[in-house]
């Protein structure tokens, strides 16, 4: 994303505001904090809390805890939410969560430890607590956790006029709703009508005649990633959620689906790079180091494979020491090619553009692309090697090794994630480590092996 | 994203359908194709067209061109859209684009070559053509290209009853709209009201009293990435678009913003891996190879830097050949650490969680995390080296080089994207190549340099 001038201006304003906020905290000036923070959207207050250090955050909250409401708690990143909730007086937390919809309370609760969860559940009114506990009974990352239980329904045989009269007479309607869901007598959803169409149709029009083509339902036990995919694929605005008997239990709206889509992307990007997907820019150095260490240790072992391979050719290197200098070129260019192929494959798997139906064609495509680039790079590197060392044998070794490793890289980049997926694992999960290990090992083996055969 | 059983079932069904479709194409059985494809959503037909090879696609379109409507053209990936449009008879294209909203026509047009653009513009009715040409006058990737021009407005002084009467009496309303936008006499938007609230409020309530807090506008010249950010940050459903004088010119709805967000993610992921962001799973091998070659060639040169560094230590390697086998361990573990740090930083820049306000804190955080993991990995590797070679000097060299390179990696992963952004470039743009070059060069230099000093 390239920055625009407007965006830079916005960033200047935000940076100045942050400086002013920290100055007010330092001066223990609660009134100045009010002036600075009150006009902000909850999402911007949450961002500001995420951008400062833990000790600055603690000072700010001690001074300004009255300003933290349910919306801010809802917006705040889960990595610091626990710290924020623990630092707030119980009555502030209680008031904050009471004003939230139950789906937002669920979202806050699921990342907290038991004691913090209890603190919030105790603060809720009885009906809300039951609703929240029912939602928590659904599996983590399921549609049941994501949905709001407040739905607007109409019997399928109603006419537009009846729906309008019902809506205008309703004592309470959800804050955000875009459709009236039609249900049969057993509460199974059979279609939905947009509010715009209800407003513009004649009173005697049966609702059934103006339902949207886009109607579909999801099960409460469906994974949220699946739900986000359906919203994005079919351009849904809201989607009814049904239980195992097909009865309506809630509705998911597009803003929640957009949020899930965004988190799925984050997960893909971080996992591809071998970082725990719960990592955040607000984490301290120790948490950061701990999240990253596991794959670094794995890499320590996989990198030792390269060392073992090279060790087999010590006699060759001892005779022609320049090989040691040249060997990383082939390995590293293979690593880049593998990463390229991998990124395209992981993305295509996430958007379901790469499926078992076209996997064979894509693998073939990667093979040919690998051969083409391998030959191209071999020509450049081979020529350079020949000219620099005045010996075409070195050029031939470099070029041939490059072709082999480009093919391995292109194939590895697509076969590794496909294999992970076939075994029910996340295709992004540290595929980067696997693929670069593959290209390193093959790069060194091909280069030193060919050198041993051709140059000695 | 982990696959569920339900998702696998869906994939089985899709795979069987694809097989049946290809069989029908092979048998030139247009009736069978109709039975298979007619019930599908346009997005699923588009996916199917993307998953088959170019020659299968050409055969399918020749047999079934009547089935391609505006929605399918709209859904289809831009990488194959040109092929599809060119293979369709002019009258099919004309009919398809005439049924689309103007914003969808703009979306199709902007990726086409001049002759294909003309073909479509000629097919439009006069009013639509003017609207499309006006939209194309806005910069590429701007809000003006993304917006629909059909808006539902009400004067700011209206009451709910007037709005209801106006909506019920309107000859035409957009297919999808969620708000009535209030404007002042100069057509400047001053707020909006959801349809749900209009339906549930008393007729005499002034619209001004039930406007949404979330109201904000974007400029027609704002970048679409900025618009997507605003939708995601502030949970918008729709957002009015204004011209340079603040007058209402259109509205953007969340489904379009979600689409942009998705494309931005794709761009980040592919650019980070050094792949052109226009690459797609439908591309042929030649197009694929061409998209990837540029950064591979760049890497060929940057990898030569590593070779030059190693070349300086040929005398050391000649004396202790095992160093050649060990040196990739330090470089490769640094590459992984750099990629981890980079992925977190690029993601945080995209979500604006990493800004100049907290850049210094994040760089410090990375430094400490790098030191911690460097020490941890140095302990493991140093111990292993000492035990395997029975000489603690080798362990010390491995450990010290590891610490140095982990610090370089952690810092490089955050400083490289921050620097690219400071210069107004996309922070994801091939940062991967820069960072791994840095960790390779420093890894080899630190290891061989320390070995020369300590072991010789």
Automatic annotation (TrEMBL), chains A, B:
Organism lineage: Bacteria, Pseudomonadati, Pseudomonadota, Alphaproteobacteria, Rhodobacterales
PROSITE patterns found in the cross-reference section: CBS
Domain CBS: 147-209, 210-267
Membrane topology per record: Multi-pass membrane protein
Function field: Acts as a magnesium transporter.
InterPro entries found in the cross-reference section: CBS_dom (IPR000644), CBS_dom_sf (IPR046342), Mg_transptr_MgtE_intracell_dom (IPR006668), MgtE_N_sf (IPR038076), MgtE_transporter (IPR006669), SLC41_membr_dom (IPR006667), SLC41_membr_dom_sf (IPR036739)
Gene3D superfamilies the record matches: CBS-domain (3.10.580.10), MgtE N-terminal domain-like (1.25.60.10), SLC41 divalent cation transporters, integral membrane domain (1.10.357.20)
Subunit: Homodimer.
Major site of localization recorded for this protein: membrane
UniProt keyword list: CBS domain, Cell membrane, Magnesium, Membrane, Metal-binding, Transmembrane, Transmembrane helix, Transport
Pfam families from the UniProt entry: CBS, MgtE, MgtE_N
NCBIfam families according to UniProt: mgtE
Record-level Gene Ontology MF annotations: magnesium ion transmembrane transporter activity; metal ion binding
Keyword Chloroplast: no
Family, similarity comment: Belongs to the SLC41A transporter family.
SUPFAM superfamilies noted in UniProt: CBS-domain pair, MgtE membrane domain-like, MgtE N-terminal domain-like
Membrane spanning residue stretches: 293-311, 317-346, 367-390, 396-420, 432-455
UniProt key word Cytoplasm: no
Annotated organism of origin: Pseudogemmobacter humi
One GO location term (cellular component): plasma membrane
Domain of life: Bacteria
Record's protein name: Magnesium transporter MgtE
Subcellular location(s) of the protein: Cell membrane; Membrane
């Amino acid at each position: 994303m390239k920055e625009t001038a407007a965006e830079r201006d916005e960033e200047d304003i935000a940076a100045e505001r942050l400086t002013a906020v920290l100055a007010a905290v330092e001066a223990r000036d609660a009134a100045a904090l009010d002036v600075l923070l009150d006009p902000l959207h909850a999402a911007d207050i949450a961002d500001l809390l995420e951008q400062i250090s833990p000790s600055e955050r603690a000072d700010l909250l001690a001074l300004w805890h009255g300003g933290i409401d349910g919306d801010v708690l809802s917006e705040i990143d889960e990595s610091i939410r626990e710290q924020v909730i623990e630092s707030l007086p119980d009555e502030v937390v209680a008031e904050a969560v009471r004003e939230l919809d139950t789906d937002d309370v669920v979202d806050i609760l699921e990342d907290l430890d038991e004691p913090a969860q209890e603190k919030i559940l105790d603060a809720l009114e009885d009906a809300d607590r039951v609703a929240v506990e029912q939602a928590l009974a659904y599996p983590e990352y399921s549609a049941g956790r994501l949905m709001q239980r407040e739905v607007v329904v109409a019997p399928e045989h109603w006419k537009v006029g009846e729906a309008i009269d019902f809506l205008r007479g309703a004592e309470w309607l959800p804050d955000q709703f875009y459709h009236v869901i039609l249900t049969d007598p057993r509460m199974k959803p059979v279609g939905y009508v947009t509010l715009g169409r209800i407003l513009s149709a004649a009173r005697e029009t049966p609702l059934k005649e103006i339902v949207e083509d886009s109607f579909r339902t999801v099960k409460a036990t469906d994974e949220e990633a699946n739900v986000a995919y359906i919203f994005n694929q079919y351009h849904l605005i809201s989607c009814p959620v049904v239980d195992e008997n097909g009865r309506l239990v809630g509705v998911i709206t597009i803003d929640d689906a957009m949020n899930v889509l965004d988190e799925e992307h984050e997960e893909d990007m971080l996992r591809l790079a071998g970082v725990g997907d719960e990592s955040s820019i607000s984490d301290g150095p120790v948490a950061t180091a701990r999240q990253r260490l596991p794959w670094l240790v794995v890499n320590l072992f996989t990198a030792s494979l390269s060392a073992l391979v090279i060790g087999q050719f010590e006699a060759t290197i001892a005779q022609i020491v320049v090989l040691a200098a040249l060997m990383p070129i082939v390995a590293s260019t293979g690593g880049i090619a593998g990463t390229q192929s991998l990124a395209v494959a992981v993305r295509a798997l996430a958007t379901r553009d790469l499926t078992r139906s076209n996997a064979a064609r894509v693998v073939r495509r990667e093979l040919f692309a690998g051969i083409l680039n391998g030959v191209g790079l071999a020509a450049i590197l081979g020529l350079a090697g020949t000219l620099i060392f005045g010996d075409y044998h070195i050029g031939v070794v470099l070029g041939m090794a490059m072709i082999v490793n480009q093919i391995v890289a292109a194939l590895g980049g697509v076969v590794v994630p496909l294999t992970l997926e076939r075994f029910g694992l996340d295709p992004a999960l540290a595929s980067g480590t696997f693929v670069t290990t593959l290209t390193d090992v093959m790069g060194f083996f091909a280069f030193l092996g060919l050198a041993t055969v051709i140059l000695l």
